[in-house]
Specification:
With 368 residues, the chain is of the alpha+beta class. 17% of the residues lie in helices and 37% in strands.
Length: 368
């Protein structure tokens, strides 16, 4: 028997992107959001019926209790011990309540099995109330479940695609209660930046004040911009928000290098700079070969057959020379200088860590 075990530097993939010296302007709505205008989460407990024998078993007692309770509300009295169906599954139903949703609007819901059901394909979600964190019912959900996958098999093997125990009911929930808001009565608006930054906040303030030719905006901190609503927009803030949302601003980002050694991903921000430094990096390759020899004793002897391992180890290291990487004035020059070394993405991760330790990396190094 012959086995070959190889221990080498892993091969990774780096996705290249185009770099620009000047950041492109983006819309304000893409980098900020209005304070108070957000999603709300809803949750509920329900039953999915109509399954083809892939529902919860007898061990899921809460499913049996729920079925008995549901039938009792419909005028059918039955003993829980007499319920042995496998076409029903207990599920948790979740949904996102969008801002400004009105009564009668429909939203999608996500259905997830909490018992031992194998497949929700072909099932129908029974009427399920969806509650908010305050315990009030804001929507009711019902409808056919779409799993986007399937599961099939027999006694010896099964085939499963995606996750058939999780499904979605498209437009399956109807809004029954609205979230109160005072959007029309506001005298000021607060924009919250997704990535707080003092330079970005200052640019947003300058762009808004230049747009309306009056000092309406002021930055409370690095992530919040307060805008005073002009008199002509009081009680009619929608046109104001529409014009502000399409306002283009050039955001400023911190100099950062993000590395992920598990996947071999290296991402560098536009502001990353490297001071002049000399680098030498060599690849190490270790190959271990194992051969098993058999020692056979002579006929009619008292010896025993034995397996004798034969191991060969080959170590090879590249003789790379010391290379001077000059200071880059742009991210493109930094990338070209590092690519000139001819290193792999995993080697690049080790090089960045060493450059940071040497104090030559003018950026934050984040390992995820």
């Amino acid at each position: 028997m012959k086995r070959i075990r190889t221990v080498m530097i892993g091969m990774f993939i780096v996705i290249g992107v185009g770099w620009h010296n000047v950041a492109d302007a983006v819309r304000l709505k893409d980098i900020a959001e209005i304070s108070g205008v957000r999603m709300n989460q809803l949750v509920g407990y329900g039953l999915v019926v109509g399954l083809d024998g892939s529902g919860d078993g007898k061990k899921a007692t809460f499913t049996v209790q729920s079925m008995a309770s549901m039938l009792e509300k419909m005028g059918v009295t039955i003993n829980q011990k007499d319920i042995q169906v496998k076409n029903v599954a207990a599920v948790m139903v979740t949904a996102n309540f969008p801002p400004f949703a009105k009564r009668g609007n429909r939203i999608d819901v996500l259905v997830s099995s909490i018992g031992d059901a194998n497949n929700l394909q072909g099932g129908t979600l029974m009427l399920t109330p969806l509650k908010g964190v305050d315990g009030k019912v804001y929507a009711v959900a019902q409808g056919p479940v779409n799993t986007g996958g399937f599961g099939a098999g027999g006694a010896a093997s099964t085939v499963v695609k995606n996750f058939p125990t999780v499904g979605r009911v498209l437009s399956g929930a109807i809004i029954e209660r609205e979230v109160p808001n005072d959007f029309r009565e506001r005298e000021s608006l607060l924009f919250s930046l997704h990535n707080p930054d003092f330079n970005t906040a200052a640019r947003v303030v300058d762009a808004i004040n230049a747009q309306f030719a009056e000092p309406l905006a002021r930055a409370q901190d690095a992530g919040t911009i307060e805008i005073t609503i002009p008199e002509r927009y009081l009680g009619n803030t929608v046109p104001l928000v529409a014009s502000l949302s399409t306002l283009e601003v050039e955001p400023d980002n911190d100099a950062k290098v993000v590395i992920n050694e598990r996947t071999g991903t290296v991402v560098m921000g536009e502001q990353v700079r490297i001071s002049t430094i000399a680098i030498a990096h060599g690849n190490l390759s270790i190959v271990v070969k194992e051969n098993t020899d058999v020692s056979q004793p002579l006929p009619f002897s008292d010896g025993q057959t034995a397996a004798l391992p034969n191991t060969q180890v080959n170590v090879q290291e590249d003789a790379n020379q010391l290379v001077v990487v000059p200071e880059g004035v742009s991210i493109g020059e930094v990338v070209n200088a590092l690519n000139a070394l001819g290193v792999t993405p995993r080697d690049l991760i080790a090089i960045f860590q060493a450059i940071k330790a040497a104090g030559a990396l003018q950026a934050d190094l984040e390992v995820i």
